[in-house]
């Protein structure tokens, strides 16, 4: 009996039965056009053939096998599933009020188990928004809840994107939220694993990898932007020796290192210590950009998170405080593009009203000077390379996961089309469909 449940080609040929009766089911996704994200050009009359969880053919006007299930998306534009290279699925910090106080309140009132369940909700929102892969760069005080979420998604328990997870992140003692905590609360949870010295740095990397980290995140600096009386205060930072030790230990096992860095010195320390990506990078200078281009260090500017803070500033004082940061951001994108630094898209969703809005970053990158094709590449091919997943995801090519999204409209003309996806397939499994071509 067991033999018949599989695909016994040997027995079939012995009995001269047609082998086709045993072939896996093929699904054909058909649409008016698809975007080749590598060339930035459309392919008309698009067909993607899917078998199991992989793409077995893609192109214009392909012959659809007679036994295939056809998903005809009509006037839709299809693209590879999007990738967010900097998110925090476990973070739902309230957007109103003091960031630090909200952070403390969340750590004090929500268990890691509850945070994981919130993460499951955020994972679903993110997937439904067309993001089929994410690089989750820190669980924000929820310990290893991101590892649990990644496993639950991979095991089919909950719906969500493919995840690379950084777990707890590493910061200098006192160098990340929660700030200004009472000395009486020694065992209060921390937003990152705080270390002092190279031995503790090495130990933290080993622990985090042991408990499931795919990559390591470090805080090369930490600016407490927006807190009253502490505007732009640069908290305790990791030394170059500490960052170098983290990089050495992580790279030994093939794990990459992402560095949160916003100040000129923090960015330089991180790049010279050999990290694989700079997150934010707002005050990056020209020589460091040059070095990043030469070394292949990625930049994940998380520009929407910064510019939305500027747009939401209520008072002239708040706006004035944000103005130099906005100017730095504009210069960062212009100069990084000119220096051919590889830019990956990351929305940095961390607040309660941000989850699932990941495509805002793609739109913001265009506002700041990338072409729509470049911004889409930042959220597909470049992001897949940053994750080391370029053979698995990031384009609609044969052998890759059948992660396919559809949008109405023309994203090369108006990239905001990506902020409303009408079709999402992950690994050959349709997770979202909204008809837009009904008469
Ligand atoms: Zn972040």
Return the CATH class of the largest domain.
Answer: Alpha Beta
Architecture of the largest domain, CATH level 2?
Alpha-Beta Barrel
Structural class based on helices, strands and sheet pairing: alpha/beta
Bound ligands, named by name, code or SMILES:
zinc ion
The rounded distance between the terminal residues' Cα atoms is 50 Å
The CATH fourth-level homologous superfamily of the largest domain: Metal-dependent hydrolases
Number of helices: 14
Shape: globular
Mean pLDDT: 92
Low-confidence region ranges: 1-21
Can you count the beta strands? 19
> What is the fold-level CATH name, i.e. the topology of the largest domain?
TIM Barrel
Question: What level of helicity do the residues show?
Answer: 25-40%
Quaternary structure type: single chain
Number of domains: 2
How does the major sheet shape up?
Answer: 8 strands, mixed
Topology:
Elements: H1 2-5, H2 9-14, E1 26-36, E2 41-51, E3 54-60, E4 69-72, E5 77-80, E6 82-87, H3 99-109, H4 112-128, E7 131-136, H5 145-154, E8 162-165, E9 170-172, E10 193-195, H6 198-210, E11 216-219, E12 223-224, E13 233-234, H7 240-252, E14 257-261, H8 264-272, E15 277-280, H9 286-295, E16 298-300, H10 303-311, H11 316-338, H12 360-367, H13 372-378, H14 381-387, E17 404-407, E18 421-426, E19 429-433
Parallel strand pairs: 1-4, 1-5, 6-7, 7-8, 9-10, 11-14, 14-15, 15-16
Antiparallel strand pairs: 1-2, 2-3, 5-17, 12-13, 17-18, 18-19
The chain binds zinc ion (ZN).
